C-alpha cells in the first residue's frame, strides 16, 4: 500500500510541476503560464538603444502575421553574445522557456536568461 501511495505521489508531483510545450499558435491560451515554446524563427529585428539592445524574434511567421514574439533585451542579450546572434537564429527551430505575456494585443515571451533558449535544429 505504501509503494502505491509513493508512486502516486511521485506521478502527481511530476504532473503538477511540468510545463507545457506549446507552439506559437497556442500561446494565446497560455498567458500568465510558464511554458516551453517550440517554433521556427521566421524573422527578427535588432534594435540598438541607449538603454541596451533589443532583439525580437518572430516565431513561425514573419511580422506582423506572427502569433508570438520572443523578446531578448539588455543584460540577457549581452550575456548571450557568442551563444547566438540574430543571424545564427534565422530559420532555426528554437525552444524557449518563459512566461507568456501580452504586448500590444499579441503574445510574447521575454527571455530572462540565455540558458532558457536552445537551438533545436
Summarize the structure.
By secondary structure, the protein is of the alpha+beta class. The protein has helices at 2-17, 74-79, 86-89, and strands spanning 20-22, 34-47, 54-59, 69-73, 93-103, 106-110, 117-119.
Total of DSSP H or I helical runs spanning 4+ residues: 3
- CATH architecture heading: Beta Barrel
Radius of gyration: 17 Å
Strand content: 35-45%
Per CATH, the superfamily is Nucleic acid-binding proteins
Total beta strands? 7
Mean model confidence by pLDDT? 86
Characterise the protein shown here.
The structure is a single chain. This protein has one domain (19-119): OB fold (Dihydrolipoamide Acetyltransferase, E2P). Helices cover 21% and strands 39% of the residues. It contains three helices and seven strands. A five-stranded mixed β-barrel has the order 2-3-4-6-5. β2 (34-47) and β3 form a beta hairpin. It is globular, with a radius of gyration of 17 Å. The N and C termini lie far apart (45 Å). The relative contact order is 0.20. Mean pLDDT is 86; it is low at 12-16. It comes from Emticicia aquatica. Residues 1-18 form the signal peptide. This is NirD/YgiW/YdeI family stress tolerance protein. Keywords: Signal.
Summary keywords:
single chain; 121 residues; alpha+beta; OB fold (Dihydrolipoamide Acetyltransferase, E2P); 5-stranded mixed beta barrel; 21% helix; globular; NirD/YgiW/YdeI family stress tolerance protein
